[in-house]
Amino acid sequence: MTRTAKIPFLDLVTPHQELKAELLEVVEKALGNAGFIGGPMVEDFEREFAKFCDTRYCVAVNSGTDALRFAFMAADIKPGEIIVTVPHTFIATTEAISQVGAHIAFVDIDEQTYTMDPEKLRDYLDNRCTLDPASGKLREKASNRAVSAIVPVHLYGQTADMDPILELADKYGLAVIEDACQAHGAEYFSRKDGQWKKAGTMGRAAAFSFYPGKNLGACGEAGAINTDDEEMAKRMKMIRDHGQAKKYYHDIEGYNGRLDAIQAGWLSVKLRHLSNWNKARRDLAHGYHELLAEAKDSVAIPVEAPWTKGVYHLYVIRVQDREALQSALAEAGISTGIHYPIPLHLQKAYAHLGFKKGDFPVTERVASEIVSLPMFPQLQQEQLREVAKRVKEFVSSHVS
Ligand SMILES: *Cc1c(COP(=O)(O)O)cnc(C)c1O
Predict the structure, then answer these.
(1) pLDDT per position as a tens digit, 337-370
(2) 128: CA distance to ligand 1 center in Å?
């Protein structure tokens, strides 16, 4: 037997070694002027990231979770109102909803793309909600709560199908806040407008995370909210900085949610590489697609809908008996992940919401079969071939 080199799920060391000189320069600069919070490095990054995303404004904050929370606050979502999202996402999406005192409503995902199923959203809004003639606001019939926003999640680097989601939001006067935390640079083809659009440009605002493992990652915690809405941008800047528009003049109570200057400087250095890194991820994904196509009866590869250009934050396949596949790959020195094993509606943290198994069957089925394969821009072709070979070996020895 030949010894296989260990193939990590994600390599965060190599890119930082490659960029070390530039990253250290940022630290030198910050130590030189002691401008650790806010300031020109943060403003430069905000300008650069807004440009990258094709939005007018970018408000840099300390995490993707706070980006979502501040966006909800700036969109004037009130305690007690309902925000609709999907149960197949990272818990930060729903934590932010609860943190503003809003209520979580779930709609199921599409089985091909793993993002919000617009038909399920339509069914929820049309049939389980009703327009209150007095206020003109949409209310959920069962709880009589106002519905105020929709959060589509661009999961794994692929955008949700935004046209029908935006149309429904428009019909009922709901705010759309995109969770773009996994989709820096992903694109969506709007059939309605006949053009490609960047993730983060389609809703009232969009939240991004720069957690180290994301497509654009800081060397610590960081996030941003992008928007074209000047008023919202202003409010989010106040919210992240204790509600002050001017030092010690607090118009509202806010948070300590600012971004460190060093993180912003590091993000600016890395942003220059993001397009190439995203392209490398796409090329690797297409490599996996081709190699795994032979096993298509037992391995479901990611489906890239014609209206999306994904940036493959993750490369997620579906198989029967995924725990056995994970063990077989681990034995071959290949690390994998599961994003995410327990649907949010079945998490202990949400037991009080009263959901049960069977409420969101697509999410539940998907969550029990998914495996994320190694995916990062520095993954080598031979490593990719090795992973694909081991996956194929596993399924061919496992045919039932
Ligand atoms: C990473 C992530 C977040 C939260 O971002 P943090 O920066 O870790 O707070 C939110 N939503 C999704 C879908 C994510 O992947």
Answers:
(1) 999 999 999 999 999 999 999 999 999 999 999 9
(2) 29
Expressed in angstroms and rounded, the spacing between residue 263 Cα and the centre of ligand 1 is 17
In a shared domain, residues 260 and 323: no
Which of 240, 269, 298 delimits the end of a domain? 269
Residue 354 has phi, psi (to 5 degrees) of: 80, 20
Contact 7, 383 (CB under 8 A): yes
Q: Are residues 251 and 361 in the same domain?
A: no
**Pocket, ligand 1, Cβ cutoff 6 A:** 63-65, 89-90, 92-93, 153, 179, 181-182, 209, 211, 223
Which residue minimizes the CA distance to atom 14 of ligand 1?
A: 181
Q: Which residues form the domain of 364?
A: 273-397
Beta strands in the chain (DSSP E): 57-61, 82-85, 103-106, 129-131, 138-140, 147-150, 175-179, 187-190, 195-198, 205-209, 223-227, 244-246, 249-250, 308-309, 315-318, 370-373
* Sites in the chain below the pLDDT cut of 50: 1-2
Q: 338 and 214 in one domain? A: no
Omega cis (within 30) before 340: yes
pLDDT at 135: 85
Q: What is the pTM of this model?
A: 0.97
